[in-house]
Amino acid sequence: MDSLPYSPILVITFAAIATYASRGLGTLLSGRLQAGDEIVEWITCVTYALMAGLIVRMIILPIGALTETPDWVRIASTVVGLIVFFMSRKNIGLGVLAGSASLACFMWS
Amino acid sequence: MTNPFTPKYPTVKSAFWGGVREAAGVPMLIMGASFLGFGSMIKDINWSIWLALYSTLSTWALPGQIAMAEMASSGAPLLAIVLAVGLINARLLPMVAALLPQVRNSGTPKWVYYAVAMIIAATSWVGTMRRLPDLRQDQKLPFLAGFGLLLYCGSPFFAATGYMLSGSVPTPITLAFIFLNPLYFVLLFLMDLEDPGRIFALILGAIIGPLTFMLTPDWTLIITGLVGGTLAWALGHCVKTKRGADG
After folding, report:
1. Total-model pTM
2. CB-based contact (8 Å) between B137 and chain A?
3. B8 to chain A nearest CA, in Å?
């Protein structure tokens, strides 16, 4: 991407540092934080909200090649994935396979 | 629930290989598919294959990598990207803090734990947490190391494969690869919907995300995470307190 005001290497490096910060701090604090602590619950909620926002955007308002797919194709493929997921007692592998395969099939025609 | 088998390894070395074997099944498949998708996504935004590998080996936490690639290619400011990745991967902090005390050995130098923290991510965490109680104390760290290292070393191969396959297979298949990850995360989040706070977080995130995108596309994810997450956490708190009072 020529339009970026920064180099991809820089973004990746900073993203890696921001990620290791949590791992390093977690090592430092190991044993002093428990699942169920309020701060842990809060971090989980922030992650869930942020990822939900990102995923909805990736499905409804995608970038790159997925913009070639009509909205209904992405939504229908997600629905197929969901149906298979719940019918297979929450088997993630099967759900992802079915949803992605239907996207390929929809686009083949 | 009883385990189908109780791994009692004769030696520390066999505990390491036990971890490798355990990771080689379903965990490897699921993680491999998502890194395949990540590779296709990096190709899709016209970055080189080396960047896909560099990100995979230096960050090794897929949700953050996807957010990074998505935001960078839509031109978000560097600060917004770093903050978003930091917030997404902040979940690793409590995961590492909860897992490491379980694998602690008296003789192991401290730096080893800082190195092992690098191979702790969602898949290796879930996969080892449930096995560790069955192992002898001195076998836990090698088991975790074997499990995490196989996934860590395998992921660049999957990312490279995804990168090279996309474009050389028919377009619908490339599109399906790119679609893998958003769908994977939708289903992953639907796995455990017990906690009211997390349910609120998903709903609020899905609503606030698109709304704030119209207002400030660069900062939408940070706002969605902090505002939606905090609100969800508080709401979840109310529900739990109420349940506690009722019961």
Report:
1. 0.85
2. no
3. 25
